[in-house]
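// run 5 | inverse folding | seed 20
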């Protein structure tokens, strides 16, 4: 039997969907997130990336993936419920590899999927998340208008848990398990094998969000190898609490 193809490199985020205390979206207002960031949950998907405006490399990737997701994984009411239950959605790598428009708009997508799957799938995740948030916003707006509630606050209150993009097909060529060495740490590889034993899922925290007691600013901190690591200083420019 085929193993689940395209295992994500490293284990970053792999535990997130099953963790009960999923970070419910609170927008971090610090560096890297301009007030014009059009993605509510940017920092939860791409904590190491800066959001950039029109014309940047990242902006091109985002709009390429937006178009791709709109075409292949349109976000609707049924999917919203499924995302709420499963906290993930599939990205078919074989389909990505042959999508001419996606390859034209993001020429290195396959290389980047291999070398940094976390960021590449983070782009898919943040786009899908925003599509769901926008869907809910449109509904809330209609409801608010009909019932005479304040539209702005109805829209502002919309939150949705983190949903991760998961690869559902393998990248060629497949790797033999014996060739899997530490040099592949952090990379995305595809393996073929037979599952001989299963154990229960053990969640490992790879990122944690912390809220400052002084200014309520939020920051995400990477937890290396699942070790608990607290922030040293508040990142809000005007605060800098310790
Ligand atoms: Zn603070």
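// decoded
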């Amino acid at each position: 039997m085929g193993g689940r193809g395209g295992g994500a490199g490293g284990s970053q985020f792999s535990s997130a969907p099953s963790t009960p205390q999923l970070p419910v979206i609170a927008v971090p207002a610090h560096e890297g997130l301009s007030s014009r960031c059009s993605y509510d949950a940017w920092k939860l998907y791409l904590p190491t990336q800066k959001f950039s405006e029109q014309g940047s490399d990242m902006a091109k990737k985002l709009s390429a993936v937006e178009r791709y997701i709109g075409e292949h994984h349109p976000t609707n009411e049924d999917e919203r419920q499924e995302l709420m239950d499963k906290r993930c959605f599939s990205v078919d790598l074989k389909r990505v590899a042959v999508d001419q428009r996606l390859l034209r708009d993001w020429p290195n997508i396959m290389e980047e999927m291999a070398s940094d799957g976390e960021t590449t799938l983070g782009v898919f995740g943040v786009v899908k998340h925003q599509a769901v948030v926008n869907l809910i916003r449109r509904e809330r707006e209609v409801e608010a208008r009909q019932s005479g509630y304040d539209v702005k606050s109805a829209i502002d209150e919309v939150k949705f848990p983190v949903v991760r993009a998961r690869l559902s097909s393998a990248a060629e060529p497949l790797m033999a398990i014996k060739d899997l060495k530490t040099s592949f740490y952090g990379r995305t590889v595809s393996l073929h094998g037979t599952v001989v034993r299963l154990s229960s899922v053990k969640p490992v925290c790879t990122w944690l969000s912390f809220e400052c007691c002084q200014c309520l600013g939020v920051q995400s901190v990477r937890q290396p190898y699942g070790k608990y690591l607290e922030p040293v200083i508040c990142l809000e420019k005007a605060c800098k609490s310790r």
